[in-house]
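Workshop exercise sheet. Pairs work together: one partner reads the sequence aloud, the other fills in the structure field after running the prediction. Swap roles for the next sheet.
Pair: D.N. / O.F.
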Amino acid sequence: MTRSDFDWPFVRQNMLVPAVTAVLAVLALIAAYWVHAEQVRQYSRLSGSHAAIHEDYDALVLRRRLVDLYHRRYLQFHDLGFVGRESRLDWIESLRTTTEELTLPRVSYAIEPQVMAIAPVQAMSSGDNVQIYRSSMRVEMGLVHELDLLRLIDELQGRAPGLIKVDNCELDWQVDEERRLQAGANIQASCGLKIYSLITSDVAAEDTI
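Structure field:
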């Protein structure tokens, strides 16, 4: 077969469809590769967003638990009278009731003016949200037995408002029979106490209303 005998129309007719198919296949492959790469990038972005959302959710759950925990503690301190303005009338009433129940021969007290206290933890005194106050108190009492002193302190801790700290106690045994009869007690006790109260921002706001 010579060059002039080569059937070009036949070749063009039968090669057109495969050529077009090959071009379309290449274009489809390129499009598929681009779509796959785009999906991978989008998946990476979504994975990062999901991880960030999951971390934020975990942090939110933790903060919620901390809020619930410290809110319960706050309510407990509030019920004890530690949070809020000092109520000396309630304190004196608690002391009087406890003295009568324990049948102590004699009890007297003296309370100094309330002053601002230095917080034991520096973070507690930062800002104006929390302020700690204390009142110094001297209690003189007659005791039939030394255990009466422990019972009195325990009762006041659970009944009187505020947080109570015992600084010191001095006991004087009435060895002389005449002095013991005059005092009506075997022991004379003198104790120094401190009453602490915590003023939070919400309590301060209530006072301004």
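Discussion prompt: Residues 1-79 form one domain. What would you look at next?
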